[in-house]
Q: What sequence folds into this?
């Protein structure tokens, strides 16, 4: 089973920073960056959970600047669960490669959102 703790650690750190961020920072773009990340993480999880090739139907809603930390946390943990359940050979990419990509995605979003 793949150790997804690098992803959950990165997601938890960013989510905590978002929850503690002042409203002004969230409104200046941090919330939008976080929502984009949550949507991307959710899409990746949905694709892993349903590899049929159908377009994912569930989109993370824009529920406001004060909930994006929770949205990032939930979407990130969903992706971590999907990656952890993936067996080698079930996808075109190695699970460890997808994990590394997801961690980098979270880290880049955090840098953009919190600068």
A:
């Amino acid at each position: 089973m793949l150790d997804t703790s690098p992803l959950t650690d990165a997601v938890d750190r960013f989510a905590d920073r978002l929850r503690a961020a002042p409203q002004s920072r969230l409104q200046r773009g941090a919330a939008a960056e976080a929502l984009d990340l949550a949507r991307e993480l959710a899409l990746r999880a949905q694709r892993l959970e349903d590899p049929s090739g159908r377009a994912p139907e569930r989109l993370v809603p824009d529920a406001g600047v004060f909930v994006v930390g929770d949205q990032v946390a939930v979407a990130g943990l969903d992706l971590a669960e999907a990656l952890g359940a993936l067996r080698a050979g079930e996808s075109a990419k190695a699970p460890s490669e997808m994990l590394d990509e997801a961690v980098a995605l979270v880290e880049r979003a955090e840098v953009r959102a919190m600068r």
